[in-house]
Amino acid sequence: MAKIDIGPPDYKKFLSPMIRKNYGKWKYHEYVKPGVIRHVAESGDTLYSIRIGSPRLVSIDFIRDICTLADEYCEGYLRFTSRNNIEFMTGDESKVEPLIEACKAKGLPVGGTGKSLSNIVHTQGWVHCHTPATDASGIVKSVMDDLYEYFIRDDLPAKLKVAMACCLNMCGAVHCSDIAILGVHRTAPVIKHEIIQKGTEIPTLVACCPTGAIRPDPKNKSVAVNEAKCMYCGNCYTMSPGMEILDAKNDGVAILVGGKVSNARSAPSFSRLVIPFLPNNPPRWPEVTAAVRNIVETWIKYARKGERVGEWIERIGWERFFTLANIPFSEKCIDDYIFSRETFRTSAAFKY
Ligand code: SF4
Ligand code: SF4
Q: Across residues 248-269, what is the average pLDDT?
């Protein structure tokens, strides 16, 4: 076959020999203890995965450290999960405990498997992106430091997935996680005409707005924004730096709950808004940290065994959730979007 240099390489080339040998022929898996999963294949092969949390945005030194551990204990094999956990894999049971000790000695947290809090999947934040309403790494570090106990124990009612996206363009998995932390802008972009005049493609800028809030302003050789139509997504700022969406005073954080990707027990579901705004309060975001902990602890206290956050809320009802979690209800929590078939309103009752 001709060699091509486009597209991702064939992932099978990078699988560990045991996974390649038993591909599609795994019989079952079990959670041995927090941070350790055992997969057993039809052939009788047994693979241990040891999971550690990562900060997602990692340094070369960090990568060197984990590669050294993989070389020493796992014949050089490790993988990253979609929530930025790192999993070391070995077929040799005698290496499991020494590897865990080596991880701990390096300060790497071991856990996140089964009924525990997985690593938080998150976006770029102030480190890299241009439209964030808040930081990603900073909030995630603060929340994970606070919730660390739930990463290293696996006796929660069910799996707990937390996600963070620093704007509603949402490069994170905030639409489908048990608890989602979302950066929100609350003011329309401030137009800097001189920047737009200098080098912005005005038709592209007008076309980029999902709500049609931008129209050409020929008099100024620029654009105008209909603020009533703007949903503060920041898309226009991606098209032109002349559409300044960042607003230090009004940007902040919203909390959503109840999403999941899993098909187990109930269908996948979208998360819903429960706290419309918390202030941006770096470096440790105490309001966000406390809000997430409160939801986690209320769920642990009241959920039945096996119930994800959304499943628990659907069973007890959203009204009861707001009462139990002591979260003030506001009109912003009402789903008033009426243009989607799936969420079309069919009764006079309001939806969350
Ligand atoms: Fe940028 Fe928004 Fe993605 Fe954050 S979520 S990295 S602000 S596009
Ligand atoms: Fe349109 Fe979003 Fe820009 Fe508002 S922020 S004008 S909705 S593109």
A: 93
Distance 188 CA to ligand 2 centre (A): 7
Name the one residue in this structure whose structure tokens are 């999403």. Answer: 259
d(C-alpha 262, C-alpha 310), whole Å:
11
Confidence band of 5 (pLDDT split at 50, 70, 90): confident
Query: Which residue in 180, 317, 197 sits closest to 254, CA to CA?
Result: 180
The amino acid at 102:
A
Q: What is the pLDDT of residue 294?
A: 98
Mean pLDDT along residues 40-60? 95
Residue 170 CA: nearest ligand 1 atom is: 5
Q: With bands split at pLDDT 50, 70 and 90, how would you rate the model's confidence at 9?
A: confident
Average pLDDT of the residues in 68-89: 95
Beta bridge partners of 40: 28, 46
Ligand 1 centroid vs 164 CA: distance in angstroms? 10
Which amino acids bring their CB within 6 angstroms of ligand 1? 123-124, 129, 131-132, 165-167, 169-171
Q: Which of 169, 190, 185 is nearest to 251 (CA)?
A: 185
Q: How far is the CA of 255 from the centre of ligand 2 (A)?
A: 21
Phi, psi of 269 (to 5 degrees): -140, 155
Question: What six digits make up the tokens of 45?
Answer: 């092969």
Contact 256, 274 (CB under 8 A): yes
Question: Is residue 332 within 8 Å of residue 276, measured between CB atoms?
Answer: yes
Q: Where is average pLDDT lowest: 19-33, 166-180, 271-285?
A: 166-180
**Interval 92-122: pLDDT, tens:** 999 999 999 999 999 999 999 999 999 999 9
Cα separation, 123 vs 130, whole angstroms:
12
Buried b (16+ CB within 10 A) or exposed e, 232-268: bbbbbbbbbebbbbbbeeebbbbbbbbbbeeeeeeee
CA–CA separation, 315 and 60 (whole Å): 46
